[in-house]
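dumping this here so i dont lose it
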C-alpha cells in the first residue's frame, strides 16, 4: 500500500513495496501514469523512470506495455539519460510499430544525439506508414463532413452536427461557412462560450470568421461589427468576373417619367418575422405616387402572408431561379429608382445582386440589424434612439431616421387567449418571459435572469424550448445558481396567431442583450405585455429601447444591466404597477408611434423622395471604408472582453496609433482622428 513517505511533497510506496512484484501487478496503467507523471511534474523524473521500469518488469504481457516504454523514454530523457531513452523508445516501436507518436519522439531523441540521418528516417517511416494524405482525399473528407453536418443541423440534431463541423475545422480552419455554422450552432444550444478554440484551432481564428448575424448575438462592439460586416461582404461578394459589366446607372435626366419605382428584395415575404411586419407597409404605400416591385428569393411555399404581399405590390418577381447577374439585369430593366435590401446578412439573401449596382440608390432596412459595411449600400434606415448622431461613425451608410424604425402589422391575426395551464404555466406565479430564440441567450443575461428569479421566489421564467439537450443545460445552470430547475418553463413552437395570443399570459417580458428583441418585443407590446430592456452600443442592442419608447412605456428602457435587474425585481414585487402599465399599453395601442403604420409609411416615402433627389442632384452619399481592415484586426483581439463606454473608443484609438507609427493611416472619423500628439 502507498504510505506518506515524502519526496518533494509526493506520496511514495514503502521501500519494501517498491521491490514487490505483486505491488506493481496490481497497478493499472492509469494509476501508473498518474503517479509517475506527478513525479515528472515535480522534477523527480528519475523516480518516475524507476516506477515505469518496475511496472514493466512485473507486467511483461500487458497490452499497454508499449505505452509504459513510451513514457519511460520520456522520463529518462527528462532525467538526462538520453541513450536509455532511445533504447526505451526503440522497444516501444518494436512492440507496436503502428504507434505513430513514438516515431516523432524517437526522431527528436536521435536528432539531439546528432544522429540526423536516423532521425529523418524515423519521420519518413511514420509518413509512409500513414494513409496517403492528398488534396483529393482531404477534399473528399471535408465534403463528407459538410454533408453530414448540413443534414444533421437541418434536422436539429445539434450535437452530432457540431462534432462534424469541429472535425472539419480540425482539418482546415480556412472554411468560413463552416465556422459560421459551427458558432451559430453552439449559440442556439447555449454552449458557452460560443466561441472557444481548441488544440490547433485558435479562438481568434474562429472570431475572425464569425458571421455578422452571430456577432450581433456575441458582442456589444459596433466598430468590430462594422469591420466584420465589411470583411464578410468583401469575402461573400468576391471579385466581379471580368466578363460581367457593371454599367453606370442612367443619368437622372434620362429617368423614365412616372411614379417613383421602389423595389424591395427579400427572401421573407412569407410567414416570417420580416414578412409579418412588412405586409402592412406594402398595403399602405401610396400607389398613386409609388410603383412597387417585390423581388422574392425565398422558399417556394405559399401562405397567407405571401399572398398579402403579392397582392399589395404592382409587380411580383421571383428571382430564385435567376443568377445574380440575371436578377441584376432584371432590376435594371425595371428601371428601379430605390432598391431596398430587406435581407442584409440573413439566410437566403442575394447580397451579390447589390454589388452589381442594379439601381442608382440602394438602401439597407429592417432585415439585418446593423451596417452592411459595403461600398454598394448608400443609406441605412433607423431612428434617433437606435442610432444617435454621435454613433453614425459605426455605419458606412448615410443614416436616415424615421420617428420609429420598425414596421408592424395592424391587421395581424391573433387567436383566442389560452389559459396558463395550456402552456404549463402556474396560475399564481409572476411570469417573466423571453420568447426569443435561444441563440440570443448569453451567459451574462442568463445569470441576470437567475438573479431576478432568486430575488422573486414566487416567479417563473418562460422561454422558448431549444433543440436537443439545450433545455437540460439551462436547467442545470439554474440548479447551480440555486434556482429550482422546474421554474424554467419552455414553450413549444406554435403558429403565429396562437404564439402571439399567449403573450397575454405573461407579466413581464425580459429583453435579451446584446441582440435585443425586435419583432418579438413588438408582438408582446401589441398584446399589452410590458417589455423591460436596456440599450448597448450596437444597433441590435438598441432596437428594443426604441420600441418601448414608441409604445409609450419609455420608463422600462433602463440605462444599465444593473438597473434592468433591479427594475424587474421591483415590478414583480408590485403587481399593481405592472397591471397599470398593461392597461396603458392596451388602451393607447392604436395611438402610439409603434403601431402607426400610415405615419411610418409617410416618413418612409418622404425618405425615398429625398434619396431620389440626392441622386438627381449629385448628392448621393459615398460609403467610406478607410482602415476597416485594421479595425477588424483589432476587434478580433479585443473581442474576448467587454469594454466600458468610457474606455471603448480609446482602446481602438490606442491600437490604431500603434499601427500608424509603422504605416501612416488616414483619419477616418471613427476611432482614428489622426496622429496623437506626443503630450497626450
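and the seq i came up w/
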Amino acid at each position: 500500500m502507498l504510505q506518506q513517505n515524502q519526496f518533494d511533497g509526493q506520496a511514495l510506496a514503502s521501500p519494501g513495496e517498491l521491490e514487490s512484484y505483486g505491488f506493481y501487478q496490481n497497478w493499472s496503467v492509469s494509476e501508473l501514469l498518474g503517479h509517475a507523471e506527478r513525479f515528472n511534474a515535480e522534477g523527480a523524473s528519475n523516480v518516475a523512470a524507476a516506477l515505469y521500469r518496475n511496472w514493466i518488469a512485473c507486467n511483461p504481457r500487458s497490452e499497454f506495455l508499449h505505452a509504459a516504454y513510451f513514457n519511460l523514454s520520456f522520463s529518462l530523457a527528462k532525467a538526462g539519460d538520453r541513450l536509455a531513452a532511445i533504447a526505451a523508445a526503440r522497444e516501444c516501436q518494436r512492440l507496436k510499430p503502428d504507434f505513430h507518436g513514438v516515431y516523432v519522439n524517437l526522431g527528436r531523441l536521435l536528432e539531439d544525439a546528432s544522429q540526423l540521418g536516423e532521425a529523418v528516417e524515423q519521420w519518413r517511416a511514420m509518413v509512409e506508414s500513414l494513409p496517403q494524405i492528398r488534396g483529393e482525399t482531404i477534399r473528399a473528407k471535408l465534403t463528407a463532413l459538410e454533408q453530414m453536418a448540413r443534414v444533421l443541423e437541418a434536422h436539429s440534431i445539434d450535437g452530432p452536427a457540431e462534432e462534424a463541423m469541429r472535425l472539419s475545422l480540425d482539418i482546415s480552419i480556412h472554411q468560413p461557412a463552416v465556422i459560421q455554422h459551427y458558432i451559430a450552432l453552439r449559440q442556439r444550444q447555449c454552449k458557452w462560450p460560443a466561441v472557444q478554440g481548441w488544440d490547433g484551432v485558435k479562438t481568434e481564428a474562429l472570431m475572425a470568421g464569425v458571421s455578422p448575424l452571430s456577432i450581433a448575438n456575441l458582442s456589444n462592439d459596433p466598430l468590430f461589427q462594422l469591420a466584420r460586416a465589411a470583411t464578410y461582404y468583401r469575402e461573400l461578394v468576391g471579385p466581379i468576373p471580368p466578363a460581367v459589366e457593371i454599367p453606370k446607372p442612367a443619368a437622372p435626366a434620362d429617368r423614365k417619367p412616372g411614379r417613383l419605382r421602389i423595389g424591395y428584395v427579400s427572401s421573407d415575404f412569407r410567414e416570417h418575422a420580416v414578412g409579418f411586419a412588412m405586409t402592412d407597409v406594402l398595403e399602405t404605400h401610396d400607389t398613386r405616387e409609388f410603383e412597387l416591385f417585390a423581388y422574392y428569393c425565398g422558399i417556394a411555399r405559399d401562405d397567407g402572408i405571401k399572398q398579402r404581399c403579392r397582392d399589395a405590390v404592382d409587380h411580383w418577381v421571383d428571382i430564385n431561379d435567376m443568377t445574380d447577374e440575371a436578377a441584376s439585369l432584371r432590376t435594371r430593366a425595371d428601371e428601379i429608382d430605390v432598391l431596398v435590401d430587406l435581407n442584409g446578412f440573413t439566410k437566403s439573401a442575394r447580397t451579390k445582386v447589390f454589388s452589381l449596382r442594379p439601381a442608382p440608390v440602394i438602401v439597407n432596412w429592417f432585415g439585418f440589424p446593423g451596417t452592411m459595411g459595403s461600398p454598394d449600400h448608400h443609406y441605412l434606415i433607423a431612428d434617433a434612439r437606435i442610432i444617435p448622431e454621435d454613433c453614425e461613425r459605426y455605419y458606412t451608410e448615410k443614416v436616415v431616421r424615421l420617428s420609429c424604425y420598425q414596421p408592424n402589422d395592424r391587421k395581424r391575426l391573433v387567436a383566442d387567449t389560452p389559459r396558463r395551464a395550456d402552456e404549463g404555466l402556474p396560475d399564481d406565479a409572476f411570469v417573466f418571459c423571453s420568447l426569443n430564440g435561444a441563440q440570443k441567450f448569453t451567459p451574462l443575461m442568463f445569470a441576470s435572469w437567475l438573479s431576478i428569479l432568486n430575488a422573486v421566489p414566487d416567479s417563473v421564467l418562460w422561454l422558448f424550448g431549444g433543440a436537443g439537450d439545450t433545455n437540460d443545460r439551462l436547467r442545470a445552470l439554474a440548479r447551480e445558481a440555486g434556482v429550482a430547475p422546474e421554474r424554467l418553463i419552455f414553450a413549444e413552437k406554435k403558429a403565429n396567431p396562437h404564439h402571439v395570443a399567449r403573450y397575454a399570459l405573461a407579466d413581464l417580458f425580459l429583453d435579451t442583450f446584446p441582440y435585443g428583441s425586435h419583432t418579438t418585443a413588438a408582438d408582446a407590446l401589441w398584446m399589452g405585455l410590458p417589455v423591460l430592456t436596456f440599450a448597448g452600443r450596437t444597433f441590435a442592442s438598441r432596437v428594443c429601447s426604441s420600441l418601448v419608447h414608441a409604445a409609450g412605456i419609455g420608463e422600462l428602457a433602463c440605462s444599465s444591466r444593473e438597473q434592468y435587474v433591479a427594475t424587474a425585481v421591483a415590478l414583480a414585487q408590485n403587481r399593481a404597477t405592472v397591471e397599470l402599465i398593461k392597461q396603458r399599453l392596451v388602451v393607447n395601442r392604436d395611438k402610439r408611434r409603434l403601431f402607426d403604420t400610415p405615419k411610418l409609411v409617410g416618413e418612409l416615402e418622404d425618405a425615398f423622395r429625398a434619396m431620389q433627389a440626392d441622386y438627381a442632384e449629385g448628392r448621393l452619399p459615398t460609403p467610406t471604408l478607410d482602415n476597416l481592415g485594421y479595425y477588424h484586426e483589432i476587434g478580433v483581439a479585443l473581442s474576448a472582453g467587454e469594454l466600458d463606454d468610457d474606455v471603448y473608443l480609446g482602446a481602438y484609438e490606442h491600437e490604431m496609433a500603434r499601427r500608424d507609427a509603422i504605416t501612416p493611416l488616414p483619419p477616418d472619423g471613427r476611432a482614428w482622428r489622426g496622429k496623437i500628439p506626443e503630450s497626450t
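The CA atoms of residues 508 and 530 lie 5 Å apart.
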